[in-house]
Each structure stands twice: as C-alpha cells, then as structure tokens.
Amino acid sequence: MNAPAAIASGNPFPGLRPFREDEEYLFFGRDAQVDTMVDRLGATRFLAVVGTSGSGKSSLVNCGLIPALHRGLMASAGSGWRVATLRPGNRPIHALAEALARPDVLRQPDPEDAGFTPVELVEATLRMSKLGLLEAYQEAPPDESRRNLLVVADQFEELFRYRTLATSSTPAAPGSASEEAVAFVNLLQEVAGQRELPVYVVITMRSDFLGECAQFFGLPEAINRGQYLVPRMTRDERRAAIAGPLNVCGADIHPALLTRLVNDVGDNPDQLSLLQHALNRTWARWREEGGTGLLEPRHYDAVGTMAGALNQHAEEAYAALTESHQRTLCEALFKAITDKGTDARGTRRPTRLDTLCEITGATAEELAAVMAVFRDPARAFLMPPHGTPLHPDTPVDISHESLMRVWERLRAWSDDEAQSAQTYRRLAETAELHAAGRAGLLGQPDLQVALDWRHRRQPNVAWAERYRPGFVAAIAFLEASAKAFDEGQRAEAARQAEAARLRQQEARSRLNARWLVLLALTMAGSLSAMSYLYILKTEESEAAQRERDKAITEARRAHDNYVALQAAQLEAEQALAAQRRLEDAQVRQDRVIAEVTRNAPQLRTKIDQAVDRRPLVYLQYADARQGELAERIRVQLNKSGYTAPGFEKVAVVPATTELRYFRKEDGQAAKALAELLKQSGIGDFVVKFVPGFESRTQLRQFEIWLARPDVGDLGRLVQNLNSDVREERLAAGQALQSKPSASPAAIAETLALFSPERINGLSAEGRINALYFLSRTAPGVWTPELERRGRELVARVEEREKSGVRLGEQTRAELKRFVAVLDAAKAGRAAPGQTQ
C-alpha cells in the first residue's frame, strides 16, 4: 500500500503512544542503533533495552529491531520470525500465554478437539516448570518458514509497578517479588541459557527500575550481558524524526518551525513523547485548515506548542464529558490513579478496575464510559489501550508521567487529593492516640475542619485504606467528637439557664427576708415603716426584673449561636450548589469557545501572521538549574510583543549575562528589551553589539546568554542571614537585595533555611532577616515550584507558633507581606508596594 495513501485519513505522528510495527515507514532517526541491538541479541539471546521514560524504547524495538530481524539482519537466524509481544501487567504468565497462543505465533489445537482454549493450554505448559516457554515452543506445530521465536516483554517495569495488584494468593511484600513474577522471570532467563532452540527474548524497561531487578536471582547478570542503553538523539536525528514522516506523506515543514521544534525538545530524552504529541496535534491543525502548503509556526502555536499542547488536548477531552456526574467521576478516577504524597511532581498509581469501583462508588460500566474518552486512540491518555477488554482485575493507569506534570487541572486535583489524604491521616492518628489515652476528643477549629472534609469528600473504606488503616475507628472518633461537642454546647446553654434561675431564686429569697423585717415593723405600727416598705418593694422588684432580663439575654445568645451554626451549614450547601452551577456554565463556555474557534479561522490567521513579524529572541544557558528561568524569560517575551522560539542548553557561556544584537539600528531596541526584563524581575543584562551580521540579518533579532550562577557565594550570603554577628546579617541582607534578589537560586537557598531539617537552628533574628528578604522579592521571579515551597514555609511557621514558638509583631508583619508576594506571583501581578 502506498504510504501517503495509507494515512490519508490518519496522522503520521503517534502522540503519546509508541510507534507500532506496521508504522516502520514513519519511524526515522534511529537507523544507526539497530545493528548494535541485533548483534547483542544474537550473542546473548536476551536483550534488555533500557532508557528513561519517553526515550523511545518501545518504538525502537517495534520499528527498528523487529523489522531488521524480518529483513534477515541476523545472518545466523535468517529472516523467518514469529513475534509474541506482551506487557506483563499484574498477571505476567497469563499475558505471556495470550501472546504465545495467537495463531500466527504458536498455533494450538482446535478448542473443540482439546477441550481447552489455546490460552489455557499454553498457560498450563508455562506453569509446569521454568522450561515452560521452551516446552511450549517444542509442543507447537513446527513452522519451517518461520522457525525463530522472539518474545518481547514491553514495559518490563510493570512487574514492579503492579506488584501490589497481583492476583496471586500470596501477594508480594514491599521490596520483594511475587511468586508469579519470579516464575515469569525464570521462564525468560531459561531462554538465555540455551542454544538448541531458536528462541530469543527482548525486554524494554525504564532505567530507574534497574535496581529493582536484584529481587530476581540471575536477572542482573542477564541484563549486564545483554543491556542496550538507548542513546540520546543528536540534533540531526531529531530533525529526521520530525521531517521524515512529513516527507513520506508528501507534506513539508517550514524551516523556522523545524529549528524551533528541535530547540524546544532540547537534549532531554524525556521530551520525545511530548514532541510526538505536539507534532500529532500540529498535523491535525494543519489538516483542519485544508492540509495545503507548509506546516508553519502558527499551526504549532495554535495547539499550545510543546509546553501547552498536552494540557490543551486533555482539556478538550474533559470538555467532551457533557454530563456533570461524568466530570465528577472523572475527577475521582484521576485522583485515584495519581499520587502526589511521595513525590511533589506526581507519580503514577495503577489501580485495578474493581478497586476503582469501590473508591468512586460507580459501576464498571460508568467508569468505562468516562475512560473511553481518554482511551481514544487519538488521545491515548489512559491504559489499557483502546480495544483491550476491561475486567475487574484490569489495571488502570495513565499512559505517561508527563500528563501529571503538564495538565493543570490534574495537578490541581492531585494537590486536593494530597490535602485530603493529609487530613484523613491526621484524623486517624489522633483517633489512635485517643484510643491509647494519649489525646482527647477533637475541639474547634480542628473538629469543624474534619467535619467539612467528610461532608465535601464523602470518603469510604476503600479510599482510606490506600493511605492509612483505621478508617472506621477514625470516623467513629470524629462522630464521638462531634457528639461530645454538641452535648457540651447544650450543657453550656443549660448551665447558663440554671445560673440565671439560681440568681432569680436568690433575689427572691432576699426579697422574702426583707418582707419579714418589714412585717415586724408594720406590727410595731409606724407610718415611716410603711413608707420604707414601699420604697424597698420597688427596689427589689426592679432587681428581680433585671435578673429576668439578663436570663432572657443569655438564652437569646445561645439561640443566636445555634442560628449562626445553621446559617454556616446553609452557606456550605449554597457554595456546593454554586460550584455545580459553575461546572455547568463551564460546559456551556467550552461549547461556545469551540464554536468560535471553528468559525473564525481567518481572524486566527491574521493574528498569527502579526505574531510572526515580531522581533525574534533566542536564549542560551549552560547550567541545568537555569532551565526554569529560561522558560520564564521565554514566556515573558512572548507576552511582551516578542517571539521567543525556544531555548538551548550549551556548553560555554559568558562570565556575565549578555543581551546581544546584530544591527546597529537595533541598539535602542536592545536597551529597551534589557530594561523590560529588568523591570520584570529577571535581572541585569550587559547589552552587547556583535558586528559582521548586518548584511545577513533582515529581521530584528536578539540573543540572550545566561551566565552560570555563583551558587557557592549565594549560599554563603543566605547562611549569613542567621549569623550571630549583627554586621554580617546586615551585609548579607543588603547584598541579597541587589542582583541576586532577581534569581530563583537566591530564593531557593533562603527557603531552605525553613526546611524541617534546618528551621530549628534558625534564630529569631535570622527568621526575620530571611522573611524580610523573601517579602521584598519581585513576584515575577517566583516559579510555581518556589511558590509551593513558600506556602509550605508559611504553614510550617504558623504550625510552630501553635506548638508554642512565639512570633513577634515584626515577624507576623513580614509573614503577612510574604503571603501577599506569593499571592501576587500566583495571580501574575505585583504585590502592594512591589514592581514587576
């Protein structure tokens, strides 16, 4: 089939999923690596393809190694190959049996004749001994034209990642392998130890799981003999990976966009999946606009570039869930399969389908309907892939870690889940201490926080057991605390009413006593006594009335407290209703935006053309820690009327940060750009003219070269904020308020003073000095990660104050000002009294 015709209605870039074997004609940039892989496989019979997440391991095997074997590149084996590809999952031997039992691999007897399905027959053979794989090969009918068998265990790290999801009767303990995983590895290792049968094994595995392989006897040695570490692609190879599929399809790409894509991906192999996804979306955009001409930067910008394409795509998938309950279920699903408690960046948390049903309270059919939107082949955000049947023990997982780090909505969900888990763990720990007699029942405000959490999240046992056992006891403790608090409120109201009654009774007793005295005086007969009686009676009546009024006032106050509590509960219900209305409004808004986008392509084209004429700014840096700073500069430039195609990590940079220009008439514009960056909190730049390019540069172009940060000197200055010598503290504060104050490194070093390990060594003066510096930094300097650490600082200082560490008025004032800086950084505007 003609390649362009084959994908006339498809897309030459796979997105987040790997390339398939039938997409070899679209796979470019890895030709030089295939020969080495074939030679190593032939020598060891066991090849371990290892690399970082997103480095292209699976694609290299599918479209590089396997086609090379079919072409006869392994001369000793020939070109006849049967290939069984599997992912171990939580049932690795069953997965291997399914891959082997396919008719084109190891053909089995007809089920009606054998009485068992082909998968059952192969699985029974595999489980008989560690030679099961070789025996299954021997028992299958021979295929002389395809004698060689290749077993590909893709995503081998699933043996470790899905360990807690194993269906074995003896689940693995943390740090150890399950019995089924050990048996599976033994089956594969037996292949490497023999030469009689033409059976070969290939595994692909993330490099960060290499240490886990020591759980299996003999596996580290086998990997050492047959390991192939996927190398980093050169710039020319990245260009081929981008332009090659387009040329196959009869399309072409604008040279400026090609260079920009190569720069955007940089030297980080983890970015290859994001590159393929951005190209997938850019191609789709180009096809929507007619599919003629070059793929241009405006198509790339329209889908959000590499930095935002995945977030934009995920939001489109979320908007496709038109029902409110589906969106609620989607949130619960993604919260369950991601985890931010152990890694601030987020980690995948594969979960069985039946467990997800228990956590979310939904049926398997309801979950499947939501998952189908994200499993769609055009998205491939969730695993298992589209078309794979879902069973109760099927693990559900996100397809790539980048989704957790790029999709902003998922990051917010993960933060909320981590906070909810923290609230539950605190509640369960307090309940455990109370049961041991080491803590009392909850009081305010902790009680109200816990009650609000239960009302909003509606937790259940399945959800809670993932974070800490003891959910039933924790909820019983919470209910007992609420009951005790309510009883205490009622008792206090009764006590106040009783006190008022006793005061009235006492006043009445005093009145009676005085009446007896007056009666005696009356019996003695005296007009003056009668007058005194009248006056005294009046005074006592007024006193009794005051006591009654006081009792009524106190009763009304108790009633008002009860009314206020009811009003707060009503306000919470109204807030929840408002949230639901906002979600429905969001659905309508998404539809309007989509409609406008479809009906206004000409306006979009004019805007993109206007952007393309903006001055170009290129960024270079050498220190890996400056990557976030370079990205922030790029974003600021694009917002300020410049085009910053990307940034590149280089080996050598000047000693000072420079802003270079190449035409003499651009001198004033260069100075204006340097001032803009300085006002944005980026720092000072040395403006430098580079001659020799006047005749070759038709556009206004600039280059920014970031000098390496002097972290050692910076650390010394920050440490001196906590010095015992007053002069050293003042000098450090003044130095930090100058140039380093525009550096994220200065902020990071200062935040480290408040870490759990160092905060106890921080004096009151050091605390004030550090907060004084942080509260006067420019909000534009703060990255999202620094803002998160800053809010942890605030929470830690406030928690220490609750535990008895006294804060002075100046410290509270600086802390309040610091919170304003964090809020301004989040909102993208300057805090009061600051300049951006």
What's the helix and strand layout?
Blueprint (H helix, E strand, L loop, with lengths): L2 H4 L24 H14 L1 E6 L5 H14 L10 E6 L5 H9 L10 H4 L3 H9 L5 H8 L8 E6 L4 H4 L17 H14 L6 E8 L12 H8 E3 L5 H14 L6 H11 L6 H17 L8 H6 L2 H15 L4 H13 L1 E2 L7 E2 L2 E2 H8 L3 H12 L6 E2 L11 E4 L3 H5 L1 H28 L10 H12 L3 H4 L6 H54 L2 H73 L1 H12 L3 E6 L5 H13 L7 E3 L8 E4 L5 H13 L6 E4 L11 E5 L5 H10 L5 H11 L7 H9 L11 H11 L9 H19 L6 H19 L9
Parallel strand pairs: 1-4, 1-5, 2-3, 3-4, 11-12, 11-15, 13-14
Antiparallel strand pairs: 6-7, 8-10, 9-10, 13-15
Helix pairs in contact: 2-3, 4-6, 11-12, 13-15, 16-18, 20-23, 23-24, 28-29, 28-30, 30-32, 31-33, 32-33
Keywords:
single chain; 836 residues; alpha/beta; five-stranded parallel beta sheet; five-stranded mixed beta sheet; globular; disordered N terminus; disordered C terminus
Describe the structure.
The protein is globular. It contains 33 helices and 15 strands. Helix 20 (408-435) crosses helix 23, helix 30 runs parallel beside helix 32 and helix 31 runs parallel beside helix 33. It is an alpha/beta fold. It is 57% helix and 8% strand.
Query: What is the 3D form?
Result: globular
Mean pLDDT: 81
Q: Oligomeric status of the shown chains?
A: single chain
- Class by alpha and beta content: alpha/beta
Q: Which strand order do you get reading across the main beta sheet?
A: 2-3-4-1-5
Distance between the termini: 59 Å
In percent, how helical is the residue content? 55-70%
As a whole number of angstroms, the C-alpha radius of gyration is 36 Å
Strand content: 5-15%
Reported for the largest beta sheet, the result is: 5 strands, parallel
Low-confidence stretches: 1-8, 168-175, 526-536, 565-585, 603-612, 829-836
E-strand count: 15
User: What's the helix count?
Assistant: 33
